Amino acid sequence: MLDDFFIRALIGGIGTALVTGPLGCFIIWRRLAYFGDTLSHSALLGVAIALLFEINITFAVFITSLIVAFSLLLLQRGRNLPSDTLLGMLAHSAIALGLVVLAFMTWVRVDLLGFLFGDILSITKTDIAVIWLGGLAVLVTLARIWRPLFAATVSAEIAKAEGLKPDYTNIIFMVMMALVIAISMKIVGVMLITALLIIPAAAARSFSSSPEQMALIAIIFGSIAVCFGLFGSLEFDTPAGPSIIVSTLLLFIVSILPNLFSIRKKKNSI
Amino acid sequence: MLHGKDKLVTLDNAGVFRSGRWLVKGITMSVGAGEIITLIGPNGSGKSTTAMIALGLLNIDEGTTYRKENLRVGYVPQKLSIDWTLPLTVNRFISLTKNISNKDIDFALSLTDTSHLQKKELRTLSGGELQRVLVARAIAVSPELLVLDEPVQGVDFNGEAKLYGLIEETKKRLNCGILLISHDLHMVMSATDQVICLNGHICCSGTPEVVTSSSEFKNLFGNKAASTIAVYQHNHNHEHSLDGSIKSKAINEDQRNHDLNHSKDKSHA
Predict the structure, then answer these.
(1) What chain B residue is nearest to A210 in terms of C-alpha separation?
(2) Residue of A154, A205, A214 lying closest to B96 (CB–CB)
(3) Which residues pair with B226 in a beta bridge?
(4) What is the spatial distance between Cα A228 and Cα A231, in angstroms, rounded to a whole number?
(5) Which of A52, A240, B41, B152 has the smallest number of Cβ neighbours within 10 A?
(6) How many CB atoms lie within 10 A of CB A229?
(7) Looking at residues B39-57, what average pLDDT do you find?
(8) Which residue in A161, A210, A214 is closest to B89 by CB distance?
(9) Mapping DSSP to helix (H, G, I), strand (E, B) and coil, where does residue A81 land?
(10) What is the dihedral of CA B62, B67, B73, B78, to 10 degrees?
(11) How would you class A216 by CB atoms within 10 Å of its CB: exposed for 0-12, middle for 13-18, buried for 19 or more?
């Protein structure tokens, strides 16, 4: 069964959606969308480094994202630059730097589009193993730190005052984000990872009355988008990664329709 | 005397230096079980800063702090903003930092008259409702130390009196220490054991009566404010009588005894 590239893509994609769902919720709750973008863009630098030193790409991307995440935290603590300036600067410098480094390596031929927008159809059995093992590790960790992480999301001050050690859980969260970026790069590419994180979560919001429910619905939406995107890509011969993101967007639009109608109804009744 | 280990939190000559100036300096205070300490002072006088030092949210640059190990804290921060992306009902919010049984959630909400809000989303609450829910949550963790940073903001006058009554009742029920920040000069409770008047440092401290009659206090807030506090002291008595089951009777009494003299109040304090 795993010999079929399409089945492998489905299994890999759904494995990714399992972790991007709940993590994406935290990213939008904590307003980290742009932060996630910066991290994922820096993944391209990780790819360049991996090719330069001939190390495993997923591992190099994980380490690079981690380093970028912690340097961002340190730089933000300095408070000299507004954080959006800092993030924008780092995000695009990382991409540019990655491309320059790749250009210097005339001896390697890389499929740049694959790194930028995903190459889910070339997914191997090893990739699937990495996605599912990494994904399960993230899910188990997330379940264990759920309460302190969520409390710190609602109010870092309350969490800290009441002894939940939010600094510690924030560090774990950063590590998880770097890991998710590393494992989902293959699916949608560095330019679109943030979309896979935040759009299913945003679509889930309208149907959720609790944070846990929202995380679960985000997983379901992400998985549906992966299936739609892949089948659509097969049917219309479109690139797989972008097709998955277009599907998440369609889901999001459908998710806000009931709200739009109820607002109109209220307006009419007044 | 401040280093007694029976105290929950002790600050000794604590100071915080940020961006080229001392936010607070020379703060020496402590909160013990069953004590209510009230911090008052003008805007920017370091009330919240002092509370944050006591909670361990801010690192001090001078002096020492002591906090009882594994101290169970309930904290009502000055502000909390919840935006649309976060689906959070009142019920779920109560057990934010600790698992709390449904029975205890119901009880905590009933104390602040917010039971009807249980299933509502936090972001849809009005300012006063949110404030009461915040207080309910802090009480529900059955804290040893309860820190309230301006808990009555946005709450109407009756609700304010009730909240102060509830704070006092909570102190008795849980025998917890309470650190209360108030910008309401006229609402310094007579139940307060010690009022600390801040303006970057401790201007004066003592029982409410001592503080309001001190010259430092009058300098800081002006004679008029000082007299306001004195006039309003009879309201503290209302809070007392509003507390608990005799509430409705108390309200009637309240109206009848509006001109109650102060000598009677002080027997309460």
Answers:
(1) B87
(2) A154
(3) none
(4) 5
(5) A52
(6) 29
(7) 90
(8) A210
(9) coil
(10) -10
(11) middle
In three-state secondary structure terms, B7 is strand
All residues of chain B having their beta carbon less than 8 Å from the beta carbon of residue A161 are 55-57, 73, 75, 77, 147
Nearest to B181 by CA among B166, B169, B196: B196
pLDDT tens for each residue of B181-200: 987 666 666 778 888 988 88
| Domains within chain B, CATH numbers bracketed | 7-72+143-268 (3.40.50.300), 76-142 (no CATH)
Neighbours of B84 (CB within 10 A): 11
Q: Do A163 and B147 make contact, defined as CB atoms within 8 angstroms?
A: no
pTM for the whole structure: 0.84
B224 reaches A (C-beta below 8 A)? no
Torsion of CA B126, B131, B137, B143, to 10 degrees: 180
Domains, chain A, ordered by start: 5-190 (1.10.3470.10)
| Sheet of B7-18, strands arranged across | B21-32, B7-18, B62-67
| CB-CB under 8 Å, B87 with A210 | yes
ipTM of predicted complex: 0.84
What is the helix (H) or strand (E) element at residue B149, kind and residue range? strand B145-149
- Dihedral (C-alpha) A205, A211, A212, A215: value to the nearest 10 degrees? 40
Which residues of chain A are modeled with pLDDT < 50? none
Sorted by sequence, the CB contacts under 8 Å of residue B52 that are 6+ apart come out as: A157, B58
Cβ atoms of residues B117 and B109 within 8 Å: yes
- At B224 the pLDDT is 60
**Which of B82, B84, B97 has the CB atom closest to A151's CB atom?**
B97
What mean pLDDT value characterizes chain B?
Answer: 80
Q: Looking at residue B203, what is its pLDDT?
A: 86
CB contact under 8 A, A162 and B98: yes
Looking at residue B142, its pLDDT comes to: 92
- A178-201 as b/e, with b when 16 or more CB fall inside 10 Å? bbbbbbbbbbbbbbbbbbbbbbbb
